[in-house]
Specification:
The protein is α/β, with parallel strands linked by helices. It has one domain: Aldolase class I (TIM Barrel, Alpha-Beta Barrel), CATH 3.20.20. The protein is 43% helix and 11% strand. The protein contains 12 helices and 8 strands. Strand 6, helix 6 and strand 7 (203-206) form a beta-alpha-beta unit. Helix 8 (232-243) runs antiparallel to helix 9 and helix 10 (268-283) crosses helix 11. The longest helix is centred in the first third of the chain and has 17 residues, at 66-82. It starts with 14 loop residues before the first strand and ends in a 6-residue tail after the last helix.
Length: 326
């Protein structure tokens, strides 16, 4: 049954969102490199993504300070404004293990330039996270801020905490909870939620682009995908082909994108290496060390790096053949 809840006052626009990797200075402390970040944000926007997601899993959010998060949002907003896109959607992670910490991060975000907050469930003591705890957590954070909240469902990163479609549906009724990113990969949640809610009431997004067409076919609004760090034009083109009704061409490109994205499934280091190798030079960032994960985590070894190049390189010609969006 279609819900009669009101359309959200600030719905998350449909489209392709890039969960942007964090770039670091080449020093022993790996301070955030805001100059390189500005170049990379600009590159992604020109590549045609519809929004940026900062301080998420791909950004190594748990390794970032609250001040670094704010500076990255400010830099992303400046990059968008300088490209003539002052209203470009910027989503930032506000996930804390406590309600208080999540509220504090949500309070910081709008002044820095964020439009939306992406929020994982609490998960430190997984056995204590009941449905009532989940509902109370999201509602209390959403009550405490004007920042519209996007639920982030990622059981693999949350001690197995998974929110079923009934729980998500209950949260959709909150006027300040505007959508969900499904990194759980559950297409059934897409079709159940989109049967009940229109996009403006509660947007539903795939958590990767290797099932973008299934998500869109089920009524979803797009995806948040790590491969957009490497080939933003390809993912934007895939989304455009589907919306233009070019199903055969979209399906062919979907397969190519899915093959490349399997490298991103291997973790942050392979994703960052792929971005350094393929996207770094055209973005104006030529030192691969800027893309290394933050310590104590290590960059790809030679064998893994060679494999990443092998599984991604088929998209190079496609990416280079597509025009800039800005």
């Amino acid at each position: 049954m279609t819900s009669t809840i009101a359309t959200k006052s600030q719905a998350l626009p449909p489209g392709i969102y890039c969960p942007v990797i964090s770039l670091y200075q080449i020093t022993s402390r790996q301070e955030i490199d805001l100059v390189a970040s500005y170049k990379f944000f600009s590159y992604l926007i020109r590549g045609g993504v519809d929004g940026l997601v900062l301080a998420g899993t791909t950004a190594e959010a748990v390794l970032l300070s609250s001040e670094e998060r704010k500076e990255l949002v400010k830099t992303a907003r400046k990059a968008a404004t300088d490209l003539g896109r002052p209203d470009f959607p910027v989503v930032t992670g506000i996930s804390g293990q406590s309600t208080n910490e999540s509220i504090r991060l949500a309070e910081d975000a709008p002044a820095a330039g964020a439009n939306f907050g992406l929020l994982l469930p609490p998960n430190y003591w997984a056995k204590a996270v009941t449905k009532d705890v989940l509902l109370g957590f999201y509602r209390e954070v959403a009550d405490a801020t004007t920042l519209p909240i996007v639920i982030y469902s990622f059981p693999a990163m949350c001690n197995g905490i998974d929110m079923n479609s009934d729980t998500l549906s209950e949260l959709a009724h909150h006027p300040n909870i505007v959508g969900v990113k499904l990194t759980c990969g559950n297409a059934g949640k897409v079709t159940r939620l989109t049967r009940e809610y229109k996009h403006g009431q509660f947007g539903v997004y795939a958590g990767s682009s290797d099932w973008l067409i299934p998500c869109l076919a089920g009524g979803g609004g797009g995806c948040v995908t790590g491969i957009a760090n490497v080939f933003p034009k390809c993912v934007a083109r895939l989304y455009a082909l589907w919306n233009e009704g070019k199903v055969k061409e979209a399906s062919e490109l979907q397969g190519l994108v899915a093959q490349a994205e399997k490298a991103c499934k291997e973790g942050i280091a392979p994703t960052k290496f792929g971005a350094a190798h393929f996207a770094g030079p055209p973005a104006g960032i030529t030192d691969e060390k800027a893309f290394w994960p933050r310590k104590p985590y290590a960059p790809c070894g030679e064998e893994k790096a060679s494999w990443v190049v092998k599984v991604m390189r088929h998209l190079v010609e496609v990416e280079q053949g597509l025009p800039d969006a800005v």
